[in-house]
Amino acid sequence: xxxxxxxxxxxxxxYFPSLGLKAYxxxxxxxxxxxxxxxxxxxxVTIEEIARLAxxxxxxxxxxxxxxxxxxxxxxxxxxxxxxxxxFRAFARRIKSLEEYIPGPDMGSNEESMxxxxxxxxRAVGLPEELGGLPLDKLGATGYGLSECADIALSFRGLxxxxxxxxxxxxxxxxxxxxxxxxxxxxxxxxxxxxxxTIYAPEGLMVKELMEVKKTTGSVVNYxxxxxxxxxxxxxxxxxxxxxxxxxDVITMKNVGSVKAKIILEGANIxxxxxxxxxxxxxxxxxxxxxIANAGGVIMAWMEYNHRTQEEAFNAIRDKIRKNTGLILExxxxxxxxxxxxxxxxxxxxxxxxxxxxxxxx
Length: 362
Fold this sequence. Notes:
By secondary structure, the protein is of the alpha/beta class. It folds into two domains: 10-133, Leucine Dehydrogenase, chain A, domain 1 (Rossmann fold), CATH 3.40.50.10860; 141-296, NAD(P)-binding Rossmann-like Domain (Rossmann fold, 3-Layer(aba) Sandwich), CATH 3.40.50.720. Helices cover 42% and strands 18% of the residues. The strands form two sheets. It has a seven-stranded mixed β-sheet with strand order 9-8-7-6-10-11-12. Strands 1-2-4-3-5 form a five-stranded mixed β-sheet. α2 (84-94) packs across α3 (111-121), α5 packs across α6 and α5 (141-155) crosses α10. It is globular and about 55 Å long.
C-alpha cells in the first residue's frame, strides 16, 4: 500500500462471517469535501486495487472542480450471486457511520444496488429515476464524456471525429454508450470486444445491431459480420482511437509494445499501468488518463446529488471534460511531460491548497 501527502485517509476491511463475505473501503482524501466513489463487486477485487481507484477518484473530483474527495469500496463477491441484495444491504449497514464516504455504482454494481444502499443509510449517488436519480448507465454519462474528450484529443493530432477509426475494449455500459455517441458524431467503430472475444471489421460495425446481438446472445462475437479475434487482440488493432473500457491493468509492460493506436482514451479506471503509460508517451501515442477521460459518470452523480436536471448534467459533463482535456494536453505540450503528469499536477494543486486551508481552520 502506498501512502503520500494526499492519503489515503482511512482504510477499512469488513468481514461478514455468517455470509462468508469480505469488503473494503478506502477514503483517500476529503480536503475538498466528502469522498465519492463507486462500489466495485468482483471475486478478485483487492484492497490494493481499491486504494488505487480511490486515488483516481480524488484526482478526478479535484480536476472536475467538484466539492468532493475520492473514495472507493470493493465487495469480494460474484455480482451474479443470488444473495447479492443481502450482501449490499449488509455492507451498507456496516458503513452507515462512515459519513465521509458516499457510494456510487461501479463495475459489478448498478442503480438497483445504489437503491438498496440508499434504503439502508440514506446516502448514495447513481440512483434509479424513481428515487430521483439520474441513471448514469442508462443515460450513458461516462460514454458521453468520452466522446467529448475524443473530440478535443483528436484536435491535438490534427484530426476530427468524422471518419476516425475506433476500437473499444469492453462492451458493457461504458463501451456501448461511447460507441453510440461516437458513431453519431461520424466515427467508425471498427472493433469491439468482451470477455468472449473481439469482433473486427475494417469497414465498420453497425453499432445498433451489435448492441442487440450483445443483449440477446451475451457476446459481441456472435455478430454475423467481421472477423473474430481473441479478446486480447483488440489492443493491437491499428486504429486512431483505442478505448479500454473494462478492467484495470489491461495494458502493461508485457503487451504495450503491440499497441498501434494513435490515441488512447482511458474509459475504465486504471486500465493502463503507469510504466506502460510512460512507454506509450515516449512512442508518441497520446494517452488521456482515466480521471480526465471518464469523469462523465461522477460529474453526473454530483449533479444528481445536487438535484440538477438531466440537461444540466450533460451540459456540465461536456463543458468540464472538454475544458480539462484541452488544459492538460496544452500543459503536456508546453512542459514536455506526459498528459498524466500534467493532469496530476493540476489536480494536486487544488487538493494541497484545500488541505492547507483545513489545517489553518483547525
